[in-house]
Every structure is written in structure tokens, then in C-alpha cells.
Amino acid sequence: MSPPIAWPPDPPARAAGELVWPLEREPRWRPQSFGEGRPAGSKSPTRHHAAIDLRASYGETVYALHGGRLLGHFGWPRKHSPAAALLVTDDKSTTLYGTVQRDSWERHGLQIGDEVIAGQPIADIGRYPSGRSMLHISIHAANTRAPSSWYHLRPPPEDLRDPRPYLTAAEENEAAPPEPAEPTLPAVRRPPVVPPPPVVPPPPPVVHPPGGAGALPILLAVAVILEEL
Fold it and tell me: 112, 73 in Cβ contact below 8 A?
């Protein structure tokens, strides 16, 4: 195992919640693998592991760790490999995603040069020549198109950044509970509105002949007598 190497640069400050875990599955990774000797297990390593490998399955969706622009792609882990590495950059850093299926970003409706946001699907996991699948994440300076190798027992290249703070922040964001929603007042149950009863006009007044109601029989009797005459 390679001796530990001091890591000078700190990652640029990012707003809370700006980094998103790049896989849908629960985060599982080995922070100590960054800087280990490669080839893995070799007694005579030639380089350091300049990335973190996340467990993933073939075809699994890769999500943008942070927002930015699709900068480019190339064969991964070698130039003529069937799989690829995809680069996404913003004004703070460039993230390399390998190994992904070549042109899988097009299946997500993306072209090189497009802008993406944190958490947006950007590619699908591919396979290494050995048949294994994983997500290889390395962080570099902004607008890095050709990431440098980290050779054994040499200082880290100038474009390389330590990916562990980025992934730690993304993991913490993944585990953080959602922000509480604004409290809402309970609905007030109001009594139903009952329409007022219809207005019935009063009956017309009864008009009695002069003399009041008691004069009617007398008038009738007089009429009868006049007919008999």
C-alpha cells in the first residue's frame, strides 16, 4: 500500500445542497481508496488511484454530481475502449464519470455542450474490459479536458482535486431530511349557506261595501222586494 500523501488544495466552496449523490442506490464507497497504488494489489505500483470507485451495476443511471456543461468524452479506461468517460464542468470543477456506455447521454436527450443541473440523468453505467461495472469519479480543475495521471510517489497533478469532500457532501445531502414545508392552517368548516325563504306578497285587502259587512243581508232583502213589485 502506498504511503499517504499530503493533499494541499481544498475544494471551492459550494452552496448547501449543490452536490447530489450520482447514483440512485444507497451510498457505499471507500474514501481510503483515493491515492492507493495501482494496479491494485501490485507490489510495484506505477500510479496512484486518482478517483473514487462507487459500486454500480451495468445499465444503472448516472446523475450529475453538480450542475454544469457537458464538456466532452473519450474512451475509458483506454482510448479505444467500447466504454467512455464523460466530463461535466462548471466554473469550479470538472467531474469525470467513468465507465459509462458510449453515447448513453444521447439516450437522455443530451449532446456535448448542453447544460445540466445537479441530479439530472446524464449517462448509463457501462463495463470495463474485465466485465466489471462501477462508477469511477474523479474531480479536476474547471474546464479540464484531458485529466492527468497521478504517477507513483509523485505529487498530485495540478488539475486533480480530492473527490472525497465532494462525495461526502453529496452523501450528507442524500441523508438529510427534507426541508419542512410551510405550515398551513387547517381548513375551517363553515356552516352551509341556507338561502332565505321566498317573499310571499300579502293577499289583497277585502273591500266591503259601504255600511260594513252587516249591511249585505239588508241590501239583498231590498233587491228581492223590488223584484216582486
Answer: yes
The reply to whether 217 falls in a domain is no
Closest CA to 148 of 62, 36, 75, 47: 47
DSSP helix/strand/coil, 173: helix
CB-based contacts of 119, cutoff 8 Å, min separation 6: 20, 63, 64
Longest Cα–Cα distance in the chain:
156
Count of structural domains, the chain: 1
The CATH number that applies at residue 115 is: 2.70.70.10
The separation between the first and the last C-alpha atoms of the chain, rounded to the nearest angstrom, is 150
Q: What is the pLDDT of residues 74-114, one digit of tens each?
A: 998 887 888 999 999 999 999 999 999 999 999 999 999 99
Q: Which residues pair with 116 in a beta bridge?
A: 68
CA-CA-CA-CA dihedral for 113, 114, 119, 120, to nearest 10: -130
pTM tops 0.90: no
Asked if residue 188 belongs to a domain, the reply is no
The residue segments making up the domain with residue 114 are: 31-142+157-175
